[in-house]
Amino acid sequence: MRESTDGSSEDLSSAHELRPPSHVSLPYRLAVGSLRLVSPLLTAGDSKLARGMAGRRHAHELLATWGMTVRDRDRPVVWFHAPSVGEGLQARAVIEALRERIPDVQIVYTFFSSSAEELARTMGAEVATYLPWDLQSPSAAVLDAVEPDLLVFTKTEVWPILTAEASALGVPVAIVGASVPPGAGRMRKPVRKWMESTWACLSLGCANTEADSRGLRELGVPDKSVTATGDPGVDSAASRFEAAPEAADWLTPLQDDPRPVVVAGSTWPADEAVLLPALKMVRTEVATLRTIIAPHEPTESRVASLLSELRRDGWRAETLGRVEADGSAEGIDAVVVDRVGVLGHLYAVGAVSYVGGGFRGDGLHSVLEPAAAATPIVFGPQHHNARAAADLVTVGGAKIARDANALAREVQNWLTDEAECDRTGRLSRRYIDVHLGAAGRIAELLDGLIAPLSDFDSNA
Hints:
Layout: H1 26-38, H2 48-57, H3 59-69, E1 77-82, H4 85-101, E2 106-111, H5 117-120, E3 127-130, H6 136-146, E4 150-154, H7 160-168, E5 173-178, H8 189-199, E6 204-207, H9 210-219, E7 226-228, H10 232-242, H11 252-256, E8 261-267, H12 269-283, E9 290-295, H13 300-312, E10 317-319, H14 320-326, E11 334-336, H15 343-346, E12 352-355, H16 368-372, E13 377-379, H17 387-395, E14 398-400, H18 404-416, H19 418-434, H20 438-449, H21 453-459
Parallel strand pairs: 1-2, 1-4, 2-3, 4-5, 5-6, 6-7, 8-9, 8-12, 9-11, 10-11, 12-13, 13-14
Helix pairs in contact: 3-6, 4-10, 4-20, 6-7, 10-20, 12-18, 18-19
């Protein structure tokens, strides 16, 4: 094993010569290489950082081993990368559509955030793991072993060295579900200039909207490679809602004890600081109100803290796990979701949906799941990263609340006016129905980038 000039360890041999990509800056390569060297010191504990560092440590070996021992050379391989859960759901819709077009395609799936670990296990990929370090030796080793016919990034992340290595091998690189919201950090001059040559390597840029298409072109994606296909997340939200279990042990008790329900999804403490006072106000007018709150990170400590806050405010609060174990939600006013993977289905039992993230700087979480459930939607003012949120406000399916009083007012109006609640919910669902089909359109374009296997055989 020897150290490469970018700080990485060449623990797997590469079939092609390792030369630093000329357009990837030396400071970037040194920074990532240095982080990789110290990463073993950051793997202690069960934090997101620790899990991510531990998972990334041997990701390149896992992928390369699959490529050398399991990969079927007579079938095409497409490598999908999605940073976290939301992007992973977009990718899954495209993967499913691509499998319909190419039934024998082999899928390699990587992710960045540890929050996507559980989702990765449901992707149906031949192999799934963390994205290897974006350094030359691990990237080259994986590409040489896996021999993907196509590399696909999702929504935002395009990794410079992996992109450069793939392009050098003649592997087409695409981005799907691409979103470039106003004020995106990658649009700022220093980052945009530094990444311009990386974006220029893309063979295909599938943007969610025409505005996103313009953003991709400004970033440096070749004009001929950019097309607006729509958001595959819409297809994913719709299919997940249609596949909601009818008799799940955690869902049935809530369905059997119907009440006016507000489902709050992907909340952070900043959301809850506004949400809980608002719900307390609504409860004075809607005495039978129940709330279901799904924190974005349902750690044991976060769930316990939220339960304590609710109980101090006079709610009879329990976890979803307790509701499931008891087989009943009778007498329970507030349910705290203590797991991931169920929120999309829980929206179906709600009369009104609150989407978290709008009261913190990182931006709003997905509004597509509650829209698929045909519920009125409300969220905080920081939603500029989510075009669908603005679109839903425009068509009348969602509202923006800037403080607790405004949030209470919107929720109470819907809960006490059934006709208006139904009308708003239909408008939110109509947004979903109008925007279906992006995954299929993207799959068709990706299919066009995969050269027939006979072409590879003849050039071998």
